[in-house]
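Please decode residue identities from the backbone states below.
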């Protein structure tokens, strides 16, 4: 699995250019077959976040249509933390940081929204029939920093766990990495665990060998050609 986490502020230029670069990168990610995109623009106000997320959803809807009827090949947009924006924009689900709502609470809120006509039937977690409305069963990923937190996420009905930081992060020197042994232990959980934090092409294979179901990253995808990254990580 490939999981791209957005950060428009890392792009050069003014705000308008950064947003354009972000949308271009989302197009690139979808066309390269990235499984999940976490929309992580936490500094934006709700109005701007919703507007930009709607543009991202239009891109994904168009890209997913090009892939035909195979929904396993579609890219799912997950909104970081903001369940209101996720539902309003028809996103496929939500990413939950530490100490946020539990996955069970999210599903209850999401279900209540669907009863009010805010979402449309889907064929499974994170999959939308018309590409416009939120699915009845959202896909939920959760930030985790220990095997215990991963086990708790699984018990609370999360779909994915992002385990971090596996390696020291270049932009935050001095961070204490969890390491590959801790990642291996976390991967014993009953949900897929994706490695996050300091991931490069050089160390990604060791994460997969440790049992990770995939790779999550910001810089790895934003600073490189995603199609090349995808081919290398997937071995073709």
């Amino acid at each position: 699995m490939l999981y791209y986490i957005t950060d428009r502020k890392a792009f050069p230029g003014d705000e308008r250019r950064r947003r354009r670069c972000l949308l271009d990168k989302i197009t690139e990610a979808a066309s390269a077959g990235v499984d999940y995109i976490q929309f992580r623009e936490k500094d934006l106000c709700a109005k701007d976040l919703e507007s930009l997320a709607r543009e991202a959803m239009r891109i994904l809807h168009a890209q997913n249509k090009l892939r035909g009827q195979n929904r396993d090949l579609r890219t799912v947009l997950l909104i970081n933390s903001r369940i209101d924006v996720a539902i309003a924009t028809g996103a496929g689900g939500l990413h939950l940081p530490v100490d946020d709502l539990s996955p069970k609470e999210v599903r209850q809120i999401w279900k209540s929204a669907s009863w009010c006509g805010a979402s449309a039937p889907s064929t499974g977690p994170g999959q939308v029939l018309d590409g416009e409305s939120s699915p009845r069963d959202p896909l939920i990923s959760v930030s985790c920093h220990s095997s215990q937190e991963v086990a708790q996420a699984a018990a609370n009905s999360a779909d994915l766990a992002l385990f971090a930081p596996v390696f020291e992060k270049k932009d935050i020197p001095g961070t204490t990495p969890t390491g590959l042994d801790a990642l291996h232990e976390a991967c014993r959980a009953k949900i897929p665990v994706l490695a996050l934090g300091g991931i490069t092409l050089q160390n990604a294979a060791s994460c997969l060998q440790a049992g990770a179901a995939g790779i999550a990253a910001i810089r790895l995808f934003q600073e490189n050609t995603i199609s090349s990254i995808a081919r290398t990580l997937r071995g073709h």
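Observation: The chain has one domain: 2-234.
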